[in-house]
Specification:
The protein contains four helices and 15 strands. The chain is α+β, with helices and mostly antiparallel strands.
Length: 229
């Protein structure tokens, strides 16, 4: 009981501080324009990162279920990392959420300063290996010629074009509900009634045709008031 009372007191104090700031700094209060976004609008991904051409770029493979640890270890070693990803919009509890997933499983592009830095990246916890290619062993004279595996160095200009293409395509198209889908009303007087989405409106609102005694009646509902059937 005391915990609930303390929570109410903190909330009341927060509102009082906010009102006091509004009175003391009225010029800081700006009316935000109403959002015209709807569930039908695409959401763009992040801006295209810049590939540092002064670094040497390679492809590293991470160990299974250790991708996050590998990224943390690489960043701690001052290794620049880039991991291409795909994005999509999912609807959770009536709200749009952008979900990001790696585009290349257990793969990360790394930028290093020199060979020692590359060896440090290769030894980082969670890193399984570097992507390599076969090359002739020219390290010691007199050795029998044979192929060895060398880390595959990437062209920075070509990698930048790849990164730009990924960023341009990283547009999260809305998923979940679209015009023509069959849904079931979950809230309000028409709860449990079947309906068909006629139009997706701004503000994550829907115009649906609710089937009432065999007749379709247009009703405007919120995105959280329906679920796909």
């Amino acid at each position: 009981m005391s915990r609930a009372k303390d929570k109410r007191q903190r909330e009341r104090a927060r509102r009082q501080r906010k009102e006091q700031r509004r009175i003391e700094h009225p010029e800081a209060v700006v009316q935000a324009a109403p959002s015209a976004r709807s569930v039908a609008d695409p959401i763009c991904g992040v801006a295209s990162p810049t590939i540092d051409a002064s670094l040497s770029w390679y492809v590293a493979r991470t160990m299974p279920r250790m991708g996050e640890r590998a990224l943390e270890a690489l960043q701690a070693a001052k290794v620049v990392t880039y991991q291409p990803r795909a994005s999509e919009v999912v609807v959770r509890r009536g709200r749009r959420v952008v979900r990001h997933t790696p585009m290349l499983i257990r793969t990360v592009f790394i930028g290093v300063v020199d060979g020692d830095h590359l060896n440090e990246a290769k030894a980082a916890p969670g890193v399984a290996e570097l992507v390599c290619y076969p090359a002739q062993d020219m390290s010691t004279q007199g050795n029998i010629a044979g192929p060895v595996m060398e880390p595959a160095r990437l062209d920075a200009v070509g990698l930048q074009r790849f990164v730009d293409a990924i960023a341009k395509g990283e547009i999260a198209e809305p998923l979940g509900i679209k015009a023509g889908d069959g849904v079931v009303v979950t809230n309000g007087p028409f709860a449990s009634f079947p309906a068909v989405v006629e139009e997706i409106l701004p503000g994550d609102r829907l115009r649906v045709a609710v089937s009432i005694f065999g007749r379709a009646s247009p009703v405007e509902l919120g995105l959280a008031d329906v679920q796909t059937s």
